[in-house]
Amino acid sequence: MNLFDLIDVDHVNLKQMMAQLLATAAGDVDERAELRRIFGRDLTIHMEAEEETLYLDLIDVDEFNLAFEALEEHMAMRFMLERVEQTRPADTRWIATFRVFSDIMNRHLQSEEDVIFPLARSTFTDEKTQQQGQRYIEAKRIATAKLAGEGG
Ligand SMILES: [Fe+2]
Ligand SMILES: [Fe+2]
């Protein structure tokens, strides 16, 4: 699969988990905690892999600084994800924190899908996006191993 097919699969999964989390109630403590753990892990891996492939390559050719904007959004998401992870799932405030997080994440996914990917598709050759797909898989493998090493 090329880079964009792989990222699409991740986005579908992440959006699905985000919707599930938004639908949890404060009483669903175990479900919320478990889903939050998997979501946080998968999102972290996804962002690292994008940074090592898509954004690394795009920075050289991106005259509008869109890549930097997207990377700033990754930083904002990491910050908010930390708050989501530090707030107790049973806390009534948790869903408020997660909603703000999801607003930032939705904005980011939309700008990737509507602006960044079309720009990248028009910039990179088919051969390049296939190679990037391989690098993306490898970057995910490394990020996964790193998280497992950290006990995440
Ligand atoms: Fe991203
Ligand atoms: Fe993404």
Describe it.
It is built from five helices and no strands. It has one domain (3-149): Four Helix Bundle (Hemerythrin (Met), subunit A) (Up-down Bundle). With 152 residues, the protein is mainly α. The relative contact order is 0.17. The longest helix has 30 residues, at 29-58. The structure holds fe (ii) ion (FE2) (2 copies). The site of one fe (ii) ion has 6 residues, from α2, α3 and α4.
In short:
The chain has 152 residues and is mostly helical.
Note the topology:
Layout: H1 3-22, H2 29-58, H3 66-86, H4 94-123, H5 126-149
Helix pairs in contact: 1-2, 1-4, 1-5, 2-3, 2-5, 3-4
The chain binds fe (ii) ion (2 copies).
What keywords describe this structure?
globular; 152 residues; 5 helices; binds fe (ii) ion; Four Helix Bundle (Hemerythrin (Met), subunit A); mainly alpha; single chain
The number of helices is 5
CATH class: Mainly Alpha
> In the CATH scheme, what's the topology name?
Four Helix Bundle (Hemerythrin (Met), subunit A)
Provide the residue-averaged pLDDT: 95
What is the beta-strand fraction?
under 5%
Shape field: globular
State the fourth-level CATH superfamily.
nmb1532 protein domain like
Instruction: Characterize the biggest β-sheet.
Output: none
Q: Provide the low-confidence segments as ranges.
A: none
Task: Give helix and strand order, one letter per element, not per position.
Answer: HHHHH
Helix-strand makeup class:
mainly alpha
CA-to-CA gap between the ends? 28 Å
Total domains: 1
The small molecules bound here are: fe (ii) ion
How many strands in all? 0
